[in-house]
Amino acid sequence: MDIAALESSPNADPLVNTILEHDLARHIVELDAYGFTVIPPEKLGTPPGFGQDLREAILDVYKRRHGVAFDDFRSTSELPVPNEMAWQLIDESDAITEAVLNPVCLAMARWHCGQSAVLGGTSSIIKPPAEDNWLPLHNDTHGVPPPQAAYPHLVNTSWVLTDYDSREDGPTVFVPGSHRWGRLPTPHEAMFWHDGAPVQPVPMQAKAGSLAIWGGNMWHGAYNRLTEGLRVTMVLVWLRPYMKMINMWNEGAVSPERLERYPELNKILGYEHPYPFREQVSNPEQIGPMIEVGQDQFG
What we know:
Radius of gyration: 19 Å
Low-confidence stretches: none
Mean pLDDT: 92
Largest sheet: 5 strands, antiparallel
Strand content: 15-25%
Number of strands: 9
Helix content: 10-25%
Order of helices and strands: HHEHHHEEEEHEEEEHH
Oligomer: single chain
């Protein structure tokens, strides 16, 4: 029985169809059972070389914003300055915009946060080898006290742009099943690399060009990087529309030309939402009608 073909659930049906079209059922099961999943490049429908183009775009933004230069990311062992100006990336390149609007990425965001999900923030993580650049365990549902809701308020879709083959690569780590616990890690649980740590996470394994997904309640952190060269990731944070955004996509944050070329941006940046963002663009008459925020999980 093809339930989606009945067209009885207008918010869920297109998500189910995309999941089946791209062979993502295993990843939905992993998200439910473990709290995270990694979708390989061959399931993302991206053109050849897309991951490389996206990585170069992220590195170019870093170089331009910080006024620095370096040669091959594979042999660079330190950043000239910390990657502090890493936000508001959408308008920087077509590769970045297309990564945001990738159909699989959008489906995973909307599976967690509904068709009305907004892009709360874009950022890059560029990580050199270092003995002390561990990231303690945490979850991303900031400011929400326990018990945290069983459903996610937000989801992280991260483009992995360098290989995660081993722990020496400094990969993200996860605590499988922790998305069900409804709380943050305590301080002694967070420092997972200490001898006798009570929680032992598992490292992500992924090839460059993959997409990693986890909900806001998932406990995660990262190993320190020991491998020569830079670890490069683009992070996209998606929110249910009642959550506070990281980036306010005010007028000028995204060029009118880009909004015209990629009209789906109007929806995911909140310009079509019944909240204040519409008032912060100069051409509300040119964007779509105000969307209705549904009352079901996928609305």
